[in-house]
Amino acid sequence: MKPSALTTGCCAVLVLAGCGSTAPPTAGSSPVVPGAMQAQPQSQPAPYKAEEIEAMVAPIALYPDALLSQVLMASTYPLEVALAARWVKAHPGVKGDAAVKAVQNESWDVSVKSLVAFPQILEPMGDKLDWTQKLGDAFLARQKDVLDAVQRLRARAQQAGHLKSGPQQTVTVETAGAAQQTIVRIEPANPEVIYVPVYDPAIVYGGWGYAGYPYYYWPPYGAYYPGDAVGSGIAWGIGLAAAVAIFGNCDWNNGGVHVEHHKATNIDRNFDASKFQGGRWQHDARHRQGVAYRDHATREKFGRSTADAAVRDGFRGRDAAGGRDNGFQGVDRGGSAVQRNTSRGNASLQSGSARAAGVGGGARMGGFGGRGGRR
């Protein structure tokens, strides 16, 4: 009996359906997609070591607690620090509370605005943007470790006889928590007048034991410390009437910083207290102005908080077109690009506009100067 045409056709279809087919993958095997590119994990920078963090906070560890907290907050917004430092240099006669009132309409974060009251802090932060950015990166990633480093240095300064109460400050020591942690607090002797100490860390801390991690240091800026020298300890300079500029404090027990809402509103009329649950400070990625975050964890945590994809790529330190690291990048207040010039030994802020060029001119990024145990 001959097969029918229908039977023959069905067999042909079944044969053709099997042509070119491959056997299913065996258990445990992985299918290979031709031409597929396997994603390579991005290398991550090593976490900062405790000694490295101590070197970063060495020049500010003896600041009054409230002022220290505001420096730490502001360091997470290095581009706005550069702009504010430029404003301070352009207005040398405006200091203290008067300076804070003068910048109320600026778009900077409240922590950055508060520091215009203290040009002897803001100018070095603007001149040493590499340090400012590193400090901010460390604080974003490891707030408790940064505050613990401050406490270790304060204990050493006390042991060396250089940290004690006086006309400029009140120093108190207490123990707290189940571990009976020793906490050294520093507050202004007069809440209405704030003194900013400047010192050589190798002297006030009784030496520097980390040869691999030189401490950061800058000498007193003459305009703010007339006649003062740090050879024998601490230079105090001129006290500033700047009570209005103080709105933060250190939470030594829990390893963070706090914000007093009603005081922050006096500095920034647009301050949004709803973003600070329980008064605990939260980093605001909008004020990062496109400066790249250092590591994957902070990029993922803060880079996602902006709705604009192009800006988000900038926050994550990526060039969306080429996938490259864009370094220190952002925009100036006129909308022009500001980014790191990596072709020079000491990188600086560069811009196509005269306004940002002014920022770059006074914002050299590099070491703090000095040799041996400091930089």
Automatic annotation (TrEMBL):
Polar residues bias spans: 338-351
Originating organism: Cupriavidus taiwanensis
Protein name per its UniProtKB record: DUF3300 domain-containing protein
Extent of Basic and acidic residues compositional bias: 313-322
InterPro entries on file: DUF3300
Keywords: Signal
Annotated spans, Disordered: 313-375
Compositionally biased tracts (Gly residues): 358-375
Source superkingdom: Bacteria
Signal sequence range: 1-27
